[in-house]
Amino acid sequence: MMKVGFETLVRYVPEEVLTKEHFEYLKPALAKLPPFLQEQFSIVPNEVRKYKHKDGDRAELMAIAIAQEALDRSGLAPSDIDYVIGAAASLHKELGLDLDTPMLNIGNCCASFVDACHLAWNLVASGECRRVLIVASAALAGGPNGGTTDLTMAIAPIFGDGAAAAIVSSQNLKCEFLSYYGETDGTCYRSARGEVRPLANPELAEAACVPCGVGPYFCMDDISYIEVASAKGYLRNSLEKALQKADLPLSALDVVICHHLGDCEASWIQDLVDAGLGAEAFQNLRLKTGNTGHTDLPTDLAQFVEDGLVKPGSIVALWVPGSGISLGCLVLRWLVGSPREEART
Amino acid sequence: MKVGFETIATYLPAEVLNVREHYSYLEPAITRMPEPEQERLRRAAPVQVRRLKDVSAAEIMAVGAARKALDNSGLTAADIDGLLITQTGGKQFMPLLGSYVHLNLGLRVDAIVRNIVDDNVSALDACYVAWNLIRSGECSRVLVVGVAAQIGGQTGFGVDLTDPLAQNYGDGAAAAVVSAQNLRCEFLAYHFETYAVKSRPGGTLTGNFGRVRPLANPDLAVKAGIEDKNGAYLVLEDPLFDQVAGRKGFITETLERALKKAGLGLPDVDLVIAPHIGYLEPGWKADLEAAGLSPDIFRNLKDKYGNMAVADVLVDLAEFGGEGQIPRDSVVALWVPCPGVQLAVLILRWSA
């Protein structure tokens, strides 16, 4: 059976750092919430990143830059790409792709990258495409040219900007995909959602440097999404199912990279411990980058490879319960050393 | 392996709006437009459209169309292992309809669910993804759903009903099961093109909504039956789209490239179903005629349903097929350009 995986994986972490002190203006908003939400929304990262460019859609600008880097790093030409998932149409022009290279966008919230990997795997394995470029870009640090974060909402400090890109193919593989498992649970359809609404706390608009008025903002007035995602056994059961598809036991896992949801982490780590894996199997960079949506997992994986935490032979699970809930889990085997080690050899 | 639609069904709201009567309140705004645009608007408007006035219109129509598709074919939720869904409008921009439809149809927990967000080409993109999921053996039956909930409520993501262009738009949905069994048609080729291009808004979530803005004509809000408030209303005008999709020869050149992928030529096509964009239709028909094709091969239900965005071509195919208007072995092109500017074409052979 043809091996398919990442030929290239690159990440972009914006330069501007916003520490949690930056969000102190939100204290009155937090104080207004019921105690259970205060507790949830107090679990914030130490810092998040924000893309500095003021003109244009930040997510789009980061997507173009990181996709170009993926091509440059892999030494591939635009004509080597047969299909693109996860980017605005403008990327097509900026990269100079062929007129008939299809583009697809998946709107599965934070699971979109992992779910895109599954489709890309399918396209390459079936022989329909040689190389699929997947782009993940998140402008969640808020502000006028960003995404959907209401900067007057107490939950705002958890969100950050970031981007990653991967080329999925069957050549020059950095890793091999072993299995994908997805689950859907529509009972939380209205929990973590986005709709057009006024600012949560208009009196904080000036402190947040945002205009008053309505916008397409993230809302979370009930926490059923968090309750389902952090239920005992949720991580473990779905990981088991994903590994089963790869004929592997749970104990084969070396690293589990989870979506950056601070309020779920304690229960996820406990799940891994209960399953006999060490708590150290759980890894992510939430404290450094915050929640960057579907960008979390590829950026963490790329960093862990650079840091040598993910080594040749490591079995890694990328696990994300996206809003909806759309749960995606991709199990892969990393095949090569860190770029530094590769350069040495 | 032959792959195509095993079944295709529509869900069209019961309420019919006579466009000329219902939208007469827009006259003051129309008369403020330059005269050539007024003329074009009046000429392009559909005769009637459908409307579902409900804050949950997208959810209702999506589940309604999906259930009809299953019922018509004698399938159950257990037979479906993939759901690809696309929408225009709705009450929330995330999560999109996938998990809601999954829950309400009772699909199995690990069915593949993907929300496809590619403006009006989404339904055809979904068909291509479904085609690959079937031929790779990943799925045996994939349900494709397209929903347009554009005029039925002020949810923040729909048509600005004070915009003169609002009269072109309608609500509706279609659903199809893609499989390799009991085929009503066989997919022959999928073709996609991207032209230079403008961005769509959306952070991590590429959405079918515009930038937040006030109503185009707040003075008409009361007559339109809506509140005068800002919203992320759909963008209804795109000069770049008109320039590309309305270019002389665009439809014939792109159809030719799509047909070539199926080993066919332009003379082989029997029916072209295009989205419901009235003002561009005369040019497209003239192009087909100039290429030696009968203008009759261009058909759609624009006058009956208006512009239903992602649902247009699936609704038309379902209705033409259901009424026996597509002769067996006809080569049909579903041809959809959308803002961006992007184009998707699905060539199929009708076999029912």
Describe, in plain words, how this protein is organized in 3D:
The complex is a heterodimer of chains A (345) and B (352). Chain A is an alpha/beta fold and 345 residues long. Chain A folds into two domains: 5-174, Peroxisomal Thiolase, Chain A, domain 1; 177-344, 3-Layer(aba) Sandwich (Peroxisomal Thiolase, Chain A, domain 1), CATH 3.40.47. Helices cover 31% and strands 24% of the residues of chain A. In chain A, the strands form four sheets. In chain A, strands 1-7-6-4-5 form a five-stranded mixed beta sheet, sandwiched between helices. In chain A, strands 8-14-13-11-12 form a five-stranded mixed beta sheet, sandwiched between helices. The model of chain A has no long low-confidence stretch (mean pLDDT 94). Chain B folds into two domains: 4-183, Peroxisomal Thiolase, Chain A, domain 1 (3-Layer(aba) Sandwich), CATH 3.40.47.10; 187-200 and 236-350, Thiolase/Chalcone synthase (Peroxisomal Thiolase, Chain A, domain 1), CATH 3.40.47. Mean pLDDT of chain B is 93; it is low at 201-206. By secondary structure, chain B is of the alpha/beta class. Chain B has a five-stranded mixed beta sheet with strand order 1-7-6-4-5, with helices on both faces. At the A-B interface, helix 4, strand 5, helix 5, strand 6 and strand 8 of A face helix 5, strand 5, helix 6 and strand 8 of B.
